Amino acid sequence: MSSYDLSRRLVAEGLGTALLVGTVVGSGIMAASLTADTALALLANTLATGAILVVLITILGPISGAHFNPAVSLIFVLSRSLPRRDLAGYVFAQVTGGIIGTIVAHLMFDHPILEWSTKMRTGQAQWLAEWVATFGLVATILAGIRFEQKSVPWLVGLYITAAYWFTASTSFANPAVAVARSLTDTFSGIRPADLPGFIAAELIGAISALLLMTWLLQPSIARAGKRAA
């Protein structure tokens, strides 16, 4: 549990989510302005996102845990690593920070402050992809904390870099980021009407990962008994 008070933790969560979304949206705008090759634009977007995650988790993790993601905060509440009373504050800070990140990215590239996205992302394949993306993210975090805590920033950054490419949805894996991306009609956007399906899939994926990893990471009682003997 962090030794920092709640106000500092919430500011860290808001700041981290703002910088994350600003990177996702801003790098998407930059990439789309430099090339008409969608694959190349996605690669640029991917590398920027993976890189900033390593930085943000490293510098803000000691303060707030560096969730930047309501699904991750929910998992930590369910696993009793985050007090239940703090969840609403974390989610508010993450969503607010994400929207600020979109606004700043728009202002940097001379876009309207906010705009509804018209980019359609819906259907069973997309929802399954978001389930997979979030399941893998939470599994990576939980196993990383268990076995190699200092490597978690790199593990998360590398996982998201890969998941951008192996999931049909390009791996949002984050309800706060999804909401923020519904407010940009650029490369990284998502229609507001498509948010419920994405968010539901993300939350179900996170809880599914928690259930499996809680069992998977539990030492075998029989094996522990043999070692003790």
Structural summary, described in words:
It is a single chain. 71% of the residues lie in helices and 0% in strands. The longest helix is centred in the first third of the chain and has 29 residues. The model has no long low-confidence stretch (mean pLDDT 95). The chain is built from 9 helices and no strands. Helix 3 packs antiparallel against helix 4. With 229 residues, it is mainly alpha-helical.
Oligomer type: single chain
| Alpha-carbon distance between the two ends | 33 Å
Strand content: under 5%
Structural class: mainly alpha
How do you describe this structure in short?
The protein is mostly helical and 229 residues long.
Topology:
Blueprint: H1 6-34, H2 38-64, H3 70-78, H4 87-108, H5 124-147, H6 152-166, H7 175-181, H8 195-216, H9 221-228
List keywords for this structure.
mainly alpha, globular, about 230 residues
